[in-house]
Amino acid sequence: MPNFANPFQGNVPRIMTQQELIQAIRLDIAGELEAIFIYDAHSQATDNELAKKVLEEIRDEEKAHVGELMTLLWQLDPAEATKFSSGEGEVKEMLEKLNITPTVKP
Ligand SMILES: [Fe+2]
User: Fold this and answer.
1) In the structure, how many helices (H) and strands (E) does the chain have?
2) What proportion of the chain, given as a percentage, has pLDDT over 90?
3) Dist. CA 5 → ligand 1 center (Å)
């Protein structure tokens, strides 16, 4: 599990700077990803139909939260958005070289 070395995991005693906010959003994204993993693990580990359905629904809501936070992060730090786009482009190049049809981004 990631262990972020910053104090913004709980109450923040003041208004954050822009850079601190960016770091806090990264931490929030990590928290959402961890939640997805945990809900998914618990869903896979039960045969209780209701529990499975509730956990999977919550897990999917967390995925939407990742999308919201990533979009916010890119808005706050456009340079980071450029890096992410660069990585996306690299994988698309690999897909093309491997002759794999990319899935369409929703
Ligand atoms: Fe969430």
Assistant:
1) 3, 0
2) 74
3) 21
